[in-house]
Amino acid sequence: GPPTGKSTLLRLKAPEKVTCSSTPLELEIFLDDLEARPLKLEGINQGLRGFQIQIHYDPSVLQAESASLGSALASIDVDGDGVIPPWAPAGPHIDNEAGTAFFGGLALITGPGQSEDPGPDPVARGAPILLGAVQFRTVGEGSAQLSSSRLLLLAGGAETYQGSVAAGQVSVGAGPCAARLASMSSRESGRPC
């Protein structure tokens, strides 16, 4: 259903089934709902000002390659005044051995009046907001849970939202890269130490 403003929820969305291949797989990070909160500082409005998320994945199935901010962040004018702060990416910082990718974004306040402009808010928009995406390549067969252990959402005035993340999952079936990896590992296993 539509956002209610009663909770803060991020959702990780990826294709459920893919074939192991050289085609990139994209994990989208949606802000489904944003809790309504009273304004504590005069001149500072609510709405999202920034986010950070750490994503976990199985590195034997997926390898993160890059991340990008959602294009809608630079086009959502919540109050219709024509002022939209630009967004800058934070990261990505990728560790494919550990299976973690850290990524985020921050709204830049560049001039007078922009600190008073509300940030993107799915409730005001009436629909979820795509915050960004992490691009993966498939490297093996199996099922990979895509989850998050760290989440930080910033409001105006450096307040934070307490939110939860709905995890995703992708199942990678046999394909060209799986066959290639199998032949590489069989050759490697025959090598002397």
Produce the secondary structure layout.
Elements: E1 9-13, E2 17-19, E3 25-33, E4 50-56, E5 62-69, E6 87-95, E7 100-107, H1 122-125, E8 129-138, E9 142-154, E10 160-161, E11 164-166, E12 168-173, H2 176-189
Parallel strand pairs: 1-11, 2-12
Antiparallel strand pairs: 1-3, 3-8, 4-7, 4-9, 5-8, 6-7, 9-10, 9-12
Quick recap of the structure?
The protein has helices at 122-125, 176-189; strands at residues 9-13, 17-19, 25-33, 50-56, 62-69, 87-95, 100-107, 129-138, 142-154, 160-161, 164-166, 168-173. 9% of the residues lie in helices and 43% in strands.
General description of the model:
With about 190 residues, this protein is mainly beta. The protein has two helices and twelve strands. The longest helix has 14 residues, at about 175-190. The chain is elongated.
